[in-house]
User: Which sequence fits this backbone?
């Protein structure tokens, strides 16, 4: 298995990028056995597909996978001697997992927990997409008394902690690895907190996890919601809170704990977006008022005032500077 690393390590590959005549050998030997320590073969003679983006951090490995027409397995001979836990979150398709004498067919959004101390088999007859985490059992045990009780018991997709964990992981996978050690450690802590809530944290650990990992994931989801709807003039605390299944007061508290407010965060995001549009040559034929509207400002005088306060120059000055530099 791709091993943990004190420095962030990222692996990306797709079998579609390899020469057809070498594809199976590279996938089975170079990737399957050497990097991830599993055996893998196509289920039938038709084409197969595999791709992943995987990242290793201290005490944690996670990644996004797509597999099709493949059987992957860890036999007794391939067990690596670690005592870790693996959580798989299905995104699409119907993979079949076998482990500890049980067989489970995955459903989109559901999660399943397995152990690295025992063999497992995964069958992907058609294209399946899933997220995978590998966690240290001894780091999770203080949060979950008996994680073994959760092995091969599907966690339903409508579990709030699971939905937030899925969102958080997908966001991290799309990002470049964090360079600051303290940020990497915060990410690891938040993920362990969310996993503990997913599989059954103890009462005391649940209280801590909700205050750390769950809050971080909720805030990240709310921020993503805001960025996706900056041009919406009806972007309010009440509408965002409703979409995130939070009370307006709870959402406001999440921002307050970060030293800001919902209103201030939205304003800064809209100012950043408007500055990006003003300095992008692709938007050079648009007038400033239309770009302000595009960024979510309905009042041009308010936009000009707050923009100058933020950047120390008017929107027209910023655009003029950009055009001079482009000559």
Assistant:
């Amino acid at each position: 298995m791709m091993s943990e690393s004190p420095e962030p390590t990222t692996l990306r590959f797709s079998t579609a990028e390899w020469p057809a005549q070498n594809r199976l050998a590279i996938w089975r030997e170079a990737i399957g056995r050497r990097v991830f320590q599993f055996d893998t073969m196509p289920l039938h003679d038709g084409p197969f597909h595999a791709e992943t983006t995987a990242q290793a951090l201290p005490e944690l490995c996670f990644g996004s996978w797509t597999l099709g027409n493949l059987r992957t397995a860890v036999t007794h001979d391939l067990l690596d001697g670690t005592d870790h836990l693996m959580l798989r979150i299905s995104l699409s398709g119907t993979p079949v997992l076998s482990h500890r004498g049980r067989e489970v067919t995955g459903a989109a959004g559901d999660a399943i927990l397995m152990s690295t101390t025992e063999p497992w088999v995964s069958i992907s007859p058609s294209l399946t997409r899933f997220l995978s985490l590998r966690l240290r059992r001894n780091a999770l045990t203080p949060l979950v008394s008996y994680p073994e009780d959760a092995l091969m018991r599907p966690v339903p997709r409508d579990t709030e902690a699971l939905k937030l964990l899925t969102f958080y992981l997908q966001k991290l996978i799309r990002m470049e690895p964090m360079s600051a050690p303290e940020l990497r450690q915060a990410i690891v802590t938040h993920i362990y907190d969310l996993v503990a809530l997913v599989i059954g944290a103890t009462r005391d650990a649940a209280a801590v996890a909700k205050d750390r990992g769950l809050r971080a994931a909720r805030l990240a989801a709310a921020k993503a919601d805001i960025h996706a709807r900056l041009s919406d003039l009806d972007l309010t605390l009440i509408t965002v809170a409703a979409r995130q299944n939070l009370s307006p007061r709870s959402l406001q508290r999440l921002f307050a704990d970060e030293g800001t407010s919902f209103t201030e965060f939205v304003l800064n995001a809209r100012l950043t977006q408007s500055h990006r549009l003003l300095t992008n040559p692709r938007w050079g034929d648009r007038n400033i008022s239309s770009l302000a509207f595009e960024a979510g400002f309905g009042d041009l005088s308010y936009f000009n005032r707050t923009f100058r306060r933020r950047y120390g120059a008017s929107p027209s000055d910023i655009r003029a500077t950009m055009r001079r530099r482009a000559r």
